[in-house]
Structure formats: structure tokens, C-alpha cells
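Sync notes, pocket subgroup
Present: LS, DG
LS reminded everyone that the earlier model was apo-only. Rerun requested with zinc ion included. Inputs:
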Amino acid sequence: MLEELTATCEGCDADLDEAAFGLAMDLGDGERRLYECECGTVTVTVVRES
Ligand SMILES: [Zn+2]
């Protein structure tokens, strides 16, 4: 089953897409993806691999 990968800004509730995508980090237990919204809020999502 695929996870929903769309992210929402924690500051203004805007949809974050590839235009806002900033950085990905794999820390071993899942990939963190950093999105920077136009409002300046940085939202981090975690993508876990089973
Ligand atoms: Zn925002």
C-alpha cells in the first residue's frame, strides 16, 4: 500500500509540491523531506520504507 506523499504546510496549510521541495535526508529509518513554503515555514515529512 502506498503512502500519501503530499505534504501540507504547517504554517498556512498550503499544499507543498515539488516547487517547495528543498532537501531529502536518509537517516536510516526513513527519508526526511524538507519543504520550504512561500510563507517561510519549513515542513518536514518522513517517508518510511517497510
Ligand atoms: Zn506556508
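DG: The radius of gyration is 11 Å.
LS: The first strand starts at residue 7 and ends at 8.
Action: DG to write up.
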